[in-house]
């Protein structure tokens, strides 16, 4: 909890002038701004910008962990398969588009 509070006050929002839709809709923070900018390649920014606004997706990550969730949404049992398919597709897109070279 304290790490999250510290992060709120020490890291500013990282914006991309060429992607105003992304910068307006999402709060992007990280301790290494240049590394974050490298990770968020144009194809990744375009992909995230294309997510439906009304679905209120949140994407969080740290190291090799990626968390995808929707704000204020409770998914019924009949919708779990669709949610898994959506998040799996989003995660694949994220990792395929990010600007870092793939490990050998």
What topology does this entry show?
Elements: H1 2-10, H2 20-25, H3 33-39, H4 42-49, E1 57-62, E2 65-70, H5 80-97
Antiparallel strand pairs: 1-2
Helix pairs in contact: 4-5
Please state the structural category: alpha+beta
End-to-end C-alpha gap:
35 Å
**Strands across the major sheet, in which order?**
1-2
The radius of gyration over CA amounts to 15 Å
Q: What string, H for helix and E for strand, traces the elements in order?
A: HHHHEEH
Binned, the helix content reads 40-55%
Count of distinct strands: 2
SS summary, helix count: 5
Overall 3D geometry?
A: globular
Proportion of residues in β-strands: 5-15%
Largest sheet: 2 strands, antiparallel
Briefly characterize the structure.
With 104 residues, the chain is an alpha+beta fold. The chain has helices at 2-10, 20-25, 33-39, 42-49, 80-97; strands spanning 57-62, 65-70.
């Amino acid at each position: 909890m304290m790490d999250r509070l510290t992060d709120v006050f020490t890291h500013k929002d990282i914006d991309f002038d060429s992607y105003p839709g992304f910068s307006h809709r999402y709060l992007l923070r990280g301790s290494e701004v240049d590394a974050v900018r490298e990770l968020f390649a144009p194809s990744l920014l375009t992909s995230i910008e294309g997510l439906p606004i009304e679905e209120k997706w949140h994407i969080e990550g740290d190291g090799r962990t990626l968390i995808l969730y929707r704000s204020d949404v409770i998914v019924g049992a009949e919708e779990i398969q669709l949610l898994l398919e959506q998040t799996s597709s989003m995660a694949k897109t994220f990792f395929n588009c990010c600007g870092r070279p793939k490990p050998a």
